[in-house]
Every structure is written in C-alpha cells, then in structure tokens.
Amino acid sequence: MEPEKLLRKWVVSLMAVLLVLGLWGGVRAAPQVPCYFIFGDSLVDNGNNNQLASLARANYFPYGIDFPGGATGRFSNGKTTVDVVAQLLGFDRYIPPYSTTRGRDILTGVNYASAAAGIREETGQQLGARISFSGQVQNYRRTVSQVVQILGNQTQAANYLRKCIYSIGLGSNDYLNNYFMPAFYSSSRQYTPEQFTDILIQQYSQQIRSLYNYGARKMALFGLGPIGCSPNEIAQNSRDGRTCVERINSANRLFNDRLKSLVDQFNRQLTDAKLIYINTYGMFQDILSSPSSFGFRVTNAGCCGVGRNNGQITCLPGQRPCPNRREYLFWDAFHPTESGNSIVGRRAYSAQSSSDAYPIDIRRLAQS
Ligand SMILES: *[C@@H]1O[C@H](CO)[C@@H](O)[C@H](O)[C@H]1NC(C)=O
C-alpha cells in the first residue's frame, strides 16, 4: 500500500476507536450548569418528608414502582418533573434531598421540596409536619454558607451560584390545603380569591428576593396546574365525574397571571438576574383536550387510589396500582404519573409551544 493510503487508513481507524470510546467508554459530557436547586411541594419532593411526622409521605410501595430506587418519597410511580429536567440538563444523577445531603454533594444542587408545604406558613398543617417555602429558603441559606466554606470565600461562591438553575414551584397547597379547605382554614372567609392570591404573590416575591440575595440568578418559576382537574377535586365536586372544578381552576389561573407579571417585574428590577415562568396549566390543557395524542386513555382518575375516580383516598401502602400506568395522566388523587411529569419536564426544558415558557425555556436559561 502506498504510504499515503496507509496513513489515511490509520487515521480512519483511530477516529473510529475514539468514537467508540466516546460513546461507550463512560465519557460523559459535563452538565450544562454546575448546579440545580429545587424548591417546592409534593410534586417534586424526593424524600424530605420521609423523616417528618406527616400524613403527606410517599416512602412506601407502590409509590416508586417504576423508579430504579423504589419508594424514595417521590409522589409518583416514577420520575418527577425536576428529575426529568435534571436529566435534560445533563446531570448524571438526580438532585438529592436536603434531608440526607452532606459535604461536597451539595455542589451539584439540593432539593428542598416538602410535601404539603405552601407559600403561607399555616398551609398544610392539618397533614402534620412540613417545610414551608420560607423554611426551604432558610435551609438554602445554610447550604450557601457551606458552599462558601467549600469554595473558599463569598466571591467564589457567588460566581459559582449565579450559573446555577433554581426551580421554584409552590402555591398548589395554598389553595388545596388552605383556601379551598374551609373546615380547617378561615382564609376563604377572610379574603376573596383575588385578595388571597395577592397575599400569596406578595409573600412569594419576598422569599424569591431572599433567594436572589443569597446568589440565585437563573430562576424558573413553575405555575400551577389546573388543580380543579385532579381526580380528588373531580371525585368531590364534579357531578358527572369528569368535568373539572372551575371555581378552583379560575383561582389557579389568577395565581398564574400574577406570577407571570412577577417574572416581568423581577426581570426589570434585578438586571443581573433572569427569571422565567413555566406554563404548567397550558400543558395540562393541551393534554386534557387531546389525551390520546399524548398516549393517555384516562385523565380523570388516579392509577392508584380509593373511591370515586380513585380520588377520594390517596394510594394506600401495599395497594395494587393499575397495570397500564403509561395510559394514566394521574398516578394518585393529586399527582401525575411519570408520563405526565415527563411531558411537563420536557416542555419546561425545551418549549414545544410558544406559550410553554416565558420569556425563554430552561434550556436557553441555562445557556444565557
Ligand atoms: C477569594 O478567593 C480567590 C481564590 O482563592 C482569590 O483570588 C480572591 O482574592 C478571594 N477574594 C476575597 C475577597 O478574599
């Protein structure tokens, strides 16, 4: 063979070997951002309530039936929305819960979410212990002091944290386990839905600003889904067992409208920060108006649960869930299946419709 041809052959083989090594040799791309911090309620809690005296716990079978780690405390059969986002951001593991995370593990981010938690302190109290949003922000401040210690000084920590993504999604329980639960809470007798929503947004904005003061710069605020379409609300308040409860949905839309305005307001005031709004409500509307195009057969009943629409009592320990989980939007009375969470997580990360994320999606937030 001519030397030139031989050389070319060698180069081609070498490139093939490198390609194989790259694909199968455990070479992992670094995540798009150094860390991902998560604040929220049962929709994204991944174990913080396991050690609490609370009725809002999910660390028992069949929760996690489709999750590699089993029943971790996630309120789903599999992944939550933030698990999906973490994967899309390129993390090679899920963001660990605050309750069990120590040492340098905090550097890739922490999940502070707690089931039954709300923006208001008293929200969810009939279910027992929980970490309210302000408690989660307090825990985050503890993490920041640890980050300062690990990285050496405040400047280093600030430079690190400003590249990270922050997911924030609360408010569902302030309606579900507060305003629309008059037997336990007086808020609906004291305030109109507009007044109550304004109070929520006011408190929310104070805590979000506190996150900013402690280094958060790239924040994704998840809006509320149509809670009036959850199997629990349909079981309790829908005559035909399928029509969503408009009184609750309209309060959720009010909250979302105010939240989107808050994003605009912060983006004007905090010029070195970027906040985005995720339109969870719109994504659910898409699914509910055309379930089969998303692969769903059942959207008004839980896969696991008790009573009308499998929505009157939540999925009980040891209970046998539906076998065709992929075809259900809801896993239990309140929480979506992994299939439902995957749709929201994927569209939050990479918008499929211009209304999914405002003004940009998480993928572009990470790049910015
Ligand atoms: C922080 O640490 C970095 C790197 O060790 C150093 O260059 C910088 O001067 C320190 N800044 C302050 C304010 O101490």
Main sheet characteristics: 5 strands, mixed
Report strand %. 5-15%
Show unreliable segments: 17-25
Say what the CATH topology of the domain at 29-228 and 256-282 and 338-367 is. Answer: Rossmann fold
- Computed Rg: 22 Å
Alpha-beta content class:
alpha/beta
Distance between the termini: 52 Å
Strand order of the largest sheet: 1-2-3-4-7
CATH architecture of the domain at 29-228 and 256-282 and 338-367: 3-Layer(aba) Sandwich
Share of helix among residues? 40-55%
Shape: globular
List of distinct ligands in this structure? 2-acetamido-2-deoxy-beta-D-glucopyranose
- Given the structure, what is the number of helices? 12
Describe the structure concisely for a colleague.
The protein has 368 residues and is an alpha/beta fold. Helices cover 40% and strands 8% of the residues.
Summarize the structure in words:
With 368 residues, this protein is an alpha/beta fold. It has a domain of 257 residues: 3-Layer(aba) Sandwich (Rossmann fold). Helices cover 40% and strands 8% of the residues. The protein has 12 helices and 7 strands. The strands form 2 sheets. Strands 1-2-3-4-7 form a 5-stranded mixed sheet. A two-stranded parallel sheet has the order 5-6. The longest helix has 24 residues. About 2% of the residues have low confidence. Bound molecules: 2-acetamido-2-deoxy-beta-D-glucopyranose. 2-acetamido-2-deoxy-beta-D-glucopyranose (NAG) binds next to helix 4. Keywords: Hydrolase, Lipid degradation, Lipid metabolism, Secreted, Signal. It is found in: Secreted. This is GDSL esterase/lipase. Pfam families: Lipase_GDSL. It comes from Acacia crassicarpa (northern wattle).
